[in-house]
């Protein structure tokens, strides 16, 4: 039996994601009857509103006397569009939803082998480790939601090879490094990355410099240098002025005897007062 949509969201599943998920064949094998559409659903009847959701209703139709078959109808939300599909069209809608559980551990690299998936939702779990590079093999993927987990490390640059990816959400994890900005990733905004303080890049308007640039101290250094220059200039100016005063005083005393007489009398009077004060 081929599986088209597997919805295990909103349960209480815990533990790690089994690597044997890679053994599930998403798609229709050659020669398979188009009257059988495999929709697997084990979740509460809750309408999902995240980036990818599937609200599956299996309606049995036994009209006719030839052979009974089960006509399936699924509500499939991707690319922000909510549509209902029924019948053979579901052969092209391949999705896996494990969101809103308690799954933990690393995401198995084998999930990248589900190459027919168009939507993968692992959000709102407790998954850790890094985003598998093998996700770059999901060439048909249109919606990838890994938000609200504990994923760490960098976003693999190989994911830019996913040319049909239109919804990408890794918000509220512990990712770090530069956000990809090529291919479809150039169309994603900061809402796809919020809640990851260690991420950087032009798309989220955060510089990727390894160290923060310290506040400039040029004005302070300039003021200090200006102060030093002013002190040196003041010293030279004061010395020159003092020398000029002394030379002017000596010239006056030499030229004018009256001023010379008053000068020496004043000096004698000062010496006398000092002698009398300390004697």
From TrEMBL:
GO terms for cellular component: plasma membrane. It is a single-pass membrane protein. Its main location: membrane. Pfam families: LRR_1 (PF00560), LRR_8 (PF13855). It is found in: Cell membrane; Endomembrane system. Keywords: Cell membrane, Glycoprotein, Leucine-rich repeat, Membrane, Receptor, Repeat, Signal, Transmembrane, Transmembrane helix. Gene3D superfamilies: Ribonuclease Inhibitor (3.80.10.10). The chain crosses the membrane at residues 233-254. SUPFAM superfamilies: L domain-like. The keyword tRNA-binding does not apply. It comes from the Eukaryota. Belongs to the RLP family. This is Receptor like protein 1, putative.
């Amino acid at each position: 039996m081929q599986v088209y949509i597997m919805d295990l969201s909103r349960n209480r599943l815990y533990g790690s994601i089994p690597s044997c998920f890679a053994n599930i064949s998403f798609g229709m094998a050659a020669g398979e009857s188009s009257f059988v559409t495999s929709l697997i659903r084990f979740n509460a009847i809750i309408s999902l509103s995240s980036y990818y959701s599937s609200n599956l209703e299996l309606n049995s139709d036994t009209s006719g006397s030839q052979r009974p078959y089960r006509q399936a109808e699924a509500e499939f939300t991707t690319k922000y569009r909510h549509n209902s599909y029924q019948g053979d069209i579901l052969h092209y809608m391949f999705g896996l939803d494990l969101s809103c559980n308690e799954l933990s551990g690393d995401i198995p690299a084998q999930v990248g082998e589900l190459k027919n998936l168009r939507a993968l939702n692992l959000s709102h779990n407790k998954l850790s480790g890094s985003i598998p590079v093998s996700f770059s093999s999901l060439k048909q993927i249109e919606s990838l939601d890994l938000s609200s987990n504990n994923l760490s490390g960098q976003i693999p640059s190989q994911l830019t090879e996913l040319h049909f990816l239109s919804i990408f959400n890794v918000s509220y994890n512990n990712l770090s490094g530069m956000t990809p900005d090529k291919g479809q990733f150039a169309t994603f905004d900061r809402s796809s990355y919020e809640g990851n303080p260690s991420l950087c890049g032009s798309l989220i308007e955060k510089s990727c410099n390894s160290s923060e640039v310290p506040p400039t101290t040029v004005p302070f250094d300039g003021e200090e240098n200006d102060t030093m220059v002013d002190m040196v200039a003041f010293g030279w100016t004061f010395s020159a002025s003092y020398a000029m005063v002394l030379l002017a005083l000596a010239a006056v005393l030499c030229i004018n005897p009256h001023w010379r007489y008053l000068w020496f009398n004043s000096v004698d009077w000062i010496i006398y007062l000092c002698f009398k004060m300390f004697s």
